[in-house]
Amino acid sequence: MKFGIVINEGPYQHQASDSAYLFAKAAIAKGHEVWRVFFYHDGVNNASKLTEPPQDDRHIVNRWAKLAEENKIDLVVCVAAALRRGIKEENLAQGFRISGLGQLVESGIKCDRLITFGD
Amino acid sequence: MSDVKKFMFVNRKAPYGTIYALESLEVVLITAAFDQDVSLVFMDDGVYQLKKGQQTKGIEIKNFSPTYRALEDYDVEKLYVEQESLTSRGLTEDDLLVGVTVLSRAEMGALMDQQDVVLSF
Amino acid sequence: MLHIINKSPSNNSALENCLSIAASGEILLIEDAVYAATKGNAFEAKLRDAMGHLKVYVLQPDLDARGMGDRLVEGVTAVDYGGFVDLTISNNTCQSWL
Asked: Would residue A118 count as lying in a domain?
C-alpha cells in the first residue's frame, strides 16, 4: 500500500510530528511504501536545519531525513507556508525540498491513503 | 484510468485566531486546479469562517472571507454546513456570506463516508 | 471510515462532535485523546454509548506514556503503531478530527 502523510504542526511543540514518524516507521516495517510526507502550516518548522535539541532528546529533523534517505521518502515543505515562517533554501535541512501545494494534492490523488497529523 | 478523486475539506476552526482557515482555503483552490471533485464542509467553529460582515482592519490581519465568494469561479460549488453547528452558535443561513447546502448530522456523516480523501484543518 | 481523534474530551469537543456525526465505522484515539478511554473519566459513559455502534481503538504507546495503561475501559481495543497502520488500510478512508 502507498501512503501519503501530512504534518501540520511544528516539532517539539506538538506530538504530531512524532506520531507521524512512528506511523511511517511502522508502515515501512510492514512492507508498505511511504511515498511522500508533506509539511504544512507550522509543520514546515520540521525542516529547519537550525534545530538543535538537547543531546538527550530525539532529533526530529534529522530523524525524518534519515528515514527518508533509507526508504526513499519524498519530504516536501509547502513553499507558501514556509516563506511565511522564515523557512527558506538557506536554512532548509538536508533531505527536505520546498515545493508547492500541488504536491499535497498529488499525494491525495496518487496515494492509497493520506493520513494527517496535526492539532 | 480516472485520476479524479472525491476530496473533502473539513473546516472546524474559527478564522483569525489561528491561520488554519486561511491555509485550508489555499489548499482548496489548488485542489480545484487539479480538476478534482471538491467538497467543503463547515462545522463546529468552522461555520464562523462564513459569517457575513467580517471587518479585520482593527486586528491588521487580511480579511480573506471574500475568497469564499470567489470559489465558484474555480468550480468549487459544493459547500456544506452542518445545521446543529449553526443553531448552537446563534446563526442562520442568512448570516452566511455565500450560498451553502445545510445538512443534518446524519446527512453529513453519510457524505463523509462517500469521500476518497478527507483533509481536516 | 476510520476517525482519528487526538484531543482530550475534557477541553476539546472533537471526540464529542465526531461521535455525533459518525453513525458507523471505527474510531482510533491517539495522543491526548487516549484519556477518553480511561475508567472514571467524565466521558466514559458517552464513550460506552458510542461503542454500541462504533468500534473504538486506542493507541497503547500513548496510553502508556501518560501512565494510564492500567485503566483502559473494557471493550476498547488497544493497538500499537503497526495496528494503527492496519486500521488505515482496513478502512477505505480516514479522517483526522483536527
From this structure: no
What is this model's ipTM? Answer: 0.97
Domain residue ranges of chain B, discontinuous segments joined by +: 6-120
**Phi/psi at C55 (nearest 5 deg)?**
-95, 130
Give which of C6, C21, C54, C96 to mutate to test B binding, by max B Cβ within 10 Å.
C21
> What average pLDDT score do residues A104-116 get?
98
Neighbours of chain A (3+ CB pairs under 8 A): B, C
Q: Is residue A117 part of a domain?
A: no
Confidence band (pLDDT; 50, 70, 90) for B3? confident
Q: What's the pLDDT tens digit per position in C67-94?
A: 999 999 999 999 999 999 999 999 999 9
Catalytic residue status for A111:
no
Total domains, chain A: 1
Longest CA–CA span in chain C (Å) reads 33
How far apart (Å, rounded) are the C-alpha atoms in residues B50 and B52?
A: 6
Would A119 be classed as within a structural domain? no
Q: Which fold has domain B6-120?
A: Hypothetical Protein Ychn; Chain: A, (3.40.1260)
Strand order in the sheet with C94-96: C77-79, C55-59, C26-29, C2-5, C94-96
Chain A residues with beta carbon closer than 8 angstroms to that of B34: 102, 105-106, 109
Chain B residues near residue A6 by CB distance under 8 angstroms? 119
Contact across the interface for B12 and C22, Cβ inside 8 Å: no
| Residue B1: predicted pLDDT | 43
- Closest partner residue to A26 (CB to CB) among C6, C84, C94 is C84
Sequence letter at residue B35: D
Domains of chain C by start residue, with CATH: 2-96 (3.40.1260.10)
Per the domain annotation, does A103 fall within a domain? yes
Q: Which of B10, B30, B62, B74 to mutate to test the interface with A (most CBs of A within 10 A)?
A: B30
- Mean pLDDT confidence for C31-41: 98
Residue A65: alpha-carbon gap to chain centroid: 9
DSSP structural state of residue C77:
E
